[in-house]
Design goal:
single chain; globular; four-stranded antiparallel β-sheet; transmembrane; Nuclear Transport Factor 2, Chain: A; 166 residues; alpha+beta
Length: 166
Amino acid sequence: MQSRRNEKRRHHPIRITIVIIVLIFLCGWTIYAIGNHPRRQSEQQAVSMAKKYANLKHEKNFYIYNRDKTYYTVTGTNKNNQSILVIIAKTGGKIRVLKQKDGITKNQALTKIWNNRKPKKVLKIAPGIFNNQAIWEITYLNKQGNLCYELLSFKNGKVVQRIDNL
């Protein structure tokens, strides 16, 4: 009889531990889901607009660019199977549809940064609009670990703006 009580006492802490782990997981997942809801909602709206106004057939990537204005970009292919970028201003403005063949790719922009700046780490890359022209914004840490960013022209990859924190 006493060995059964001891056995029950041993299983009780295991159950409590499992319940605590499950609760921690559920709380973490809930915080993550609530935090990402605005991004998912923006992505769904941008994809919907890209399909409606730019004939986007298959979506590939979604980006958010924040500067003087916020832009959402959806990349993918159109009904003619051409690679496109659809840049949508968060508030007002027109929808810009860029054919990928008319500019540099994400990988070309990254290669240019890696070759010219030799960063410690690239943090983010996103297409957007700056001074009424399409750009790639690359945010990175330089060799000293300082935050830097560079805007490259979508058309030719030339530097539009650069901030180097030395």
